[in-house]
Amino acid sequence: MTNQEIFEEACQYIPGGVNSPVRAFKSVGEIPVFAKKGDKAHLFGEDGVEYIDYICSWGPLILGHNHPVVQNAIIEASQLGTSFGLPTKLEVAMAKLIVDSYQGIEMVRMVNSGTEATMSALRVARGFTGRNKIIKFEGNYHGHSDGLLVKTGSGALTFNLPTSPGIPQEIISQTIICKYNDLSSVIAAVEQNKKDIAAIILEPVAANMGIVPATKEFLTGLRTLCDQNGIVLIFDEVITGFRVSYHSCPDYLGVIPDMVCFGKIIGGGLPVGAYGGKKEIMSLVSPQGPVYQAGTLSGNPLAMSVGLAQLSYLNNHPDVYEYINKAANYLENGIKTILSTLSLDYQVHRCQSLLTLFFTNKPITTFEDVQTCNTEMYALFFREMLRQGILIAPSQFEAWFVSAAHSQIDLDNTLNAIKKALVKCHDALVD
Ligand SMILES: *Cc1c(COP(=O)(O)O)cnc(C)c1O
User: What is its main location (predicted)?
Assistant: First the structure.
């Protein structure tokens, strides 16, 4: 069956034919690729086409598709049962692994998605401080819970839906939006809402408006501001956790939050999220404390087994990080070399193994900068890549994910395709 045929049927039964908006490929003028199977860095579509995959499930697949360690973990765990509704030793091992890996975090609660993690972390921060308001940043994405779906990134940004119908104004009014990498906007917001701000939540490396790292001054400034005003600093590391380093952003950037949210990599491709923090904050979570949060499938044994297998592998193989960072750097340099000969406006941003090619001449540090990008040019680029069997992010405002399974041949084939695609972009501009 062709993607077109499956998509037409999908659209009859599923809104937009997909279960998450960016999968629709709408903003790049395409229809979705329906995935059939994955093997290492390659994805096979239902249409029989083989792709080199840089979506990699949007981050979880740091070891590539179907890594034997991950595959064996799920086979073994499935033989023991799929869910118990009782605690398991696996959950203890997972919590301990996260605590051991992450500076400043003493307790962890497992949930089922990144959305659930950020939503729950904010509830705990509010319970802890006895305050209502939160600060988030333009272009940062923290999942789709009501209070966080304001000026958000990812699919909402791709489809130009900064906020959504269905969310009461009362809820949105508790969310204050500040400018990413602009400390003065945060200082002003804290000043205007003295003693009413429970938490500041951010992606320490923004990955949902394309890759835009926070500056060192911005992060250390936020840390100081939170300390001075009794505000809980929350790092949303759903993408960056165990990605930028095994020890995540405190190690990579040198700033330690009060709470952290995880997802993606810690589930190894199964639906998982987690939030954690210092003991004095996390002891407020039910049943130890009064802040309620629960989940029938939270800490699911299959998800824990797969997550633990992937994280333990990463812990024992630091060379994985060396490899993926070098591989992404190889792509970055290759792209820059190609573009140096073409008259296209661009910025290449790389943070470790995360990469974005922005089509703009403006250096990017803020959400406003990101919005200067030529999304039509990106769409053309995407389609030319797809035609050559390379799956990159189907949006200007998302990252490309390099995995340990991308071989040197994959990288060279990718650069050859990028060269052809960029020449097409260049020619389109000249015409
Ligand atoms: C993906 C993502 C989320 C949401 O996680 P889901 O598992 O999709 O609910 C939250 N924050 C960040 C930074 C993300 O990239």
Answer: cytoplasm
pLDDT of residue 229: 98
Atom of ligand 1 nearest to the CA of 140: 13
Fold entry, domain 3-66+318-430: Aspartate Aminotransferase, domain 1 (3.90.1150)
- Ligand 1 mutation pick, 120, 122, 239, max ligand atoms within 8 A of CB: 239
Task: State which of 55, 148, 205, 264 you would mutate to test the pocket of ligand 1, scoring each by most atoms of that ligand within 8 A of its C-beta.
Answer: 264
Q: Map residue 51 onto helix, strand or coil.
A: strand
What residues are in contact with ligand 1 under a 6 Å CB criterion?
113-115, 118, 141-143, 203, 207-208, 236, 238-239, 263, 273
Residue 230 has a pLDDT of 98
Reply yes or no on whether 326 is catalytic: no
Q: In b/e form, how buried is each residue of 256-287, taking b as 16+ CB within 10 angstroms?
A: bbbbbbbbbbbbbbbbbbbbbbbeebbebbee
pLDDT at 158: 66
According to the model, what pLDDT value does residue 194 have? Answer: 83
**Residue ranges in the chain modelled with pLDDT below 50:** none
CATH of 68-316, one of 3.20.20.30, 2.60.120.380, 3.40.640.10, 3.40.50.300: 3.40.640.10
Q: Which uninterrupted H or E stretch holds 69?
A: helix 68-78
Kindly give the distance from the C-alpha atom of residue 428 to the centroid of ligand 1, in angstroms, as a whole number.
Answer: 35
Query: What are the structural domain ranges in the chain?
Result: 3-66+318-430, 68-316
Nearest CA to 244 out of 204, 277, 291, 302 is that of 204
Give tens-digit pLDDT for 128-158: 999 999 999 999 999 999 999 887 776 666 6
68-78 vs 301-316: helix axis angle to the nearest 10?
150
Residue 159's pLDDT is what? 65
pLDDT at 156: 65
